[in-house]
Amino acid sequence: MQRIAFILLSFLCSAGLAHAQDIMAIDGPGNVYLIDSANGSGTLLGSLGYTGAVGLARDSADDLYAICDHPISGQAIVQVDPLTGAGTLVNSAIPLYTGEVFRGVSFDSSDNLWAEHTTSYIVTVPLASGVAVFGNKPATFDIRSIAWRGGEMYGWDLFKGLVIFDTVGTNWATDVNPGVPGSLDVNAMTASPSGQLFGASDSLYSIDEITGVATLVGSGPYSGITAMEFLGTPPNPVLSVTPLTAGQAATFSVTGATPFGSVIVGYSTAGAGPTSTPFGVVDMSPPINAFPPFAMDATGSGGWSLTIPGGASGLTLYTQGVDTGSGLLTTSLATAIL
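^ thats the sequence. predicted structure below, dont judge the formating
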């Protein structure tokens, strides 16, 4: 058992923390990636289980929905698991007119799901029915992606670049900057929680909402991104342990951590804290030590076993960990040793 002062633990973790992969992105074949908005790097998360995703949107409850191909209805709304990227069918997605398809989706602040047609009609699509509700046609633009930013909806046109919609009146679209054309390949667009617009296809770009200028953030390994959205606030990884009995083996486990990352669990017998650390307030009192790091699998789960010392009966073990990939603390435990 390795005993490391928690302040040293915090230093080691902060030195090795990865950038936050805060964007989920999907390509045409249905591969789901996590992308770091700070540098554009991405890692494969899993498969949507559907192809032809044309948009990914997150509502106020942090639930993710995509519109993608469906073998029977043509297109469908699926809910996307933020941990695995797997899609679950919600409803068929029915456009206004036969022969049309959806391109680009985004929730507004009231959880109305907006979408764009091949003929550039802007519509809303209730999740309960999947049937498009008529909005209006935004001029003659060729818009492929949309994103709400606060109370305003933006789109990326393949010829005109960034446009902004009049969603209160006609839904008419206006070119943000006629001097910046849409030559850049942006087939997916979203806005960060702070309001920064991003676009992607083979690379990630930040987009200035005033000038319409797109600036390269970084690339791959991914290509052909057709849908993307910022993830909501992730839940804390869950720490659990089997009953603790002096002289016997116990198993600690963690779920909901960063896939293929690692978790370090601190422990104390001095009390439940609170103690401030660089990752937040932990439910342990000094002195705080740590078990060796243990690895997570593709689902963000992992665990390890140890033998409880024979003389520990009657003590309470206070434990809490940190996910070194996200910097999030796990849930905490206070477990009596029998």
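The longest strand covers residues 316-323.
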